[in-house]
Amino acid sequence: MTATANADREADFERTIEHHDRIEPRDWMPEKYRATVIRQVAQHAHSEIIGMQPEGNWITRAPSLRRKAILLAKVQDEAGHGLYLYSACETLGVSRGELTDKLISGKQKYSSIFNYPTLSYADVGTIGWLVDGAAICNQVPLCRTSYGPYGRAMIRVCKEESFHQRQGYELLMTMMSGTDEQRAMVQESVDRFWWPALMMFGPPDADSPNTAQSMAWGIKRDTNDDLRQKFVDMSVPQAEALGVTLPDPELAWNEERGHHDFGQPDWDEFAAVVSGSGPCNAQRIAHRKRAHDEGAWVREAALAFAAKGTDL
Length: 312
Ligand SMILES: [Fe+2]
Ligand SMILES: [Fe+2]
Hints:
The protein is an all-alpha fold. Helix content is 66%, strand content 2%. Helix 6 packs antiparallel against helix 7. The site of one fe (ii) ion has 5 residues, from helix 4 and helix 7.
């Protein structure tokens, strides 16, 4: 390709980004853009799939048939989110098999939140309220992300995430109008999940090496700190309506800023969990590996069937 053609396609790419239009799979893109989108979408897909485990833990012990049906549907939704996102990632030239290998070998990450255990049924409600709530804050701006297949997947995912958040809140509301023991279960659960939920937005902007480039390319639309602030502002009145206390003594309305002030999560704990030393990291990956290994015969059979080229 000539130097002029090279310059043309780069200019096309820059123009698309500038106009907030979408980059599509067949468009030319810088290699670093491709790698950054793959990293972000893969990490997101892995989070959806690993995120099935903490809640899946309670499916067999749901307190009623209704709660069981709701939880089953919710966990299945997360599997669906993983599938849309792996498909979006495949449009960039990586296979789902490669992505799964990278997850299992620890070369690609998933959200730190899923390395915490679920210790009571109240955790199902808290995860819906806070974890899916934080996911919505993160993901609504991603509906406008510059990579087309990712943005379109997010539009569908966000609709389901907002349903997830409501079901979690409704479960907690039901428990809060129950017995003292149930109210105590909810408070204990919120105490454990509040800080890890704040960590879901990633490190403070000053320590987030990829943010500036990702924003310049329109892959990311808001900074970690802005999204965290939005989440805190959204959660405080919801906690009040629920009747739970958020475990942060520094939490206070700041009239001047028009936002809540709040304390910082333990960033050393975050670094440890991200690097593999969280309470459930080893368990989550071992479980994912077991499921993948046990599914090998299904993948082989599907390929053999496809190779025969016959219809069912
Ligand atoms: Fe999801
Ligand atoms: Fe969800």
